[in-house]
Write a structure and sequence with these properties.
Largest sheet: 8 strands, mixed
Shape: globular
CATH superfamily: Zn-dependent exopeptidases
Structural class: alpha/beta
Number of strands: 12
CATH topology: Aminopeptidase
Strand order of the largest sheet: 1-2-4-3-7-12-10-11
CATH class: Alpha Beta
Length: about 260
């Protein structure tokens, strides 16, 4: 059974105090891989209400990456790897963006307007950057620095999911591997996945660092000289626990052996 803890980098305000924004699963895990899942949750702290959205919208991909946390938790168990995941929806603030980026707080996600994010003043943006972005990434930094100082950190892997169709265009990939300058880990996992001829593996698809989706790995892997890998799985394949377990079992040996070769 994995151990779990929750941490924040600074005291939470009364509005966000019901739950820290970063949770750590299996903090004593022996794997050198650190798993991160930034879009794990569709939870909105009470301060934000529903942001003007309905239940169907809050369950959709605009609020989180469906299935990603289930895969990440199963990988944490199979690899005996620590996992840091968010407990706040990306509708409040996208943790995989610089807080100064115009799309760190979405007002329009694909075709959905987020009424509660319209016309935010500088004070509210600063508040969210401090209470959500800083709290999450400072928690990751604190944990990663301790693991690295102990010689227990060798790679960082972030787990995401993507929609089967985007703007009416079907996406052909079941899984995408996103990488930047250091592509060694991605190429190792790609070679393993391509042993299954039924799989279509996207390399820097459906996103790439050019889409500014590599922020977390740039901050927590590249800046430490560690191999990074972002994994995107099509979310219709991981809606169920069986699907999540299947993909985790497929990926775990490739991630384990790949980390040993780097």
């Amino acid at each position: 059974m994995t151990q779990a803890s929750q941490v924040t980098a600074s005291p939470a305000s009364a509005e966000t105090a019901e739950q820290p924004v970063a949770a750590i699963e299996n903090p004593q895990g022996r794997s050198p891989i650190l798993l991160i899942c930034e879009h794990a949750s569709n939870r909105l702290p009470a301060r934000y209400g529903t942001l003007g959205l309905g239940p169907e919208e809050l369950e959709s991909h605009i609020a989180w990456d469906p299935g990603a946390l289930g895969v990440a938790k199963e990988l944490s168990r199979l690899l005996d790897a620590p996992l840091v995941h968010a407990t706040v929806s990306r509708l409040v603030l996208d943790l995989n963006r610089e807080p100064s980026a115009p799309d760190s707080i979405w007002t329009l996600s694909e075709r959905t307007t987020i009424p509660g994010n319209l016309d935010l003043d500088d004070d509210e943006r600063t508040y969210r950057a401090r209470e959500v972005y800083d709290a999450f990434h400072d928690a990751v930094d604190t944990f990663a620095n301790a693991r690295m100082a102990a010689g227990e950190l060798g790679a960082v892997v972030s787990i995401h999911s993507f929609t089967p169709v985007y703007r009416d265009v079907p996406r052909p990939w079941q899984i995408g591997l996103i990488f930047n300058r250091d592509e060694r880990y991605a190429r190792y996992v790609e070679a393993g996945l391509k042993q299954d001829p039924a799989l279509t593996v996207g390399m820097n698809e459906p996103y790439s660092p050019a889409d500014r989706v590599f922020h977390t790995l740039e901050r927590h892997a590249e800046r430490r000289g560690l191999p990074p890998l972002m994994i995107e799985i099509r979310n219709d394949l991981i809606r169920t626990e069986d699907g999540q377990a299947s993909w985790a079992n497929r990926l775990a040996p490739l991630l384990r052996e790949g980390a040993r070769t780097l």
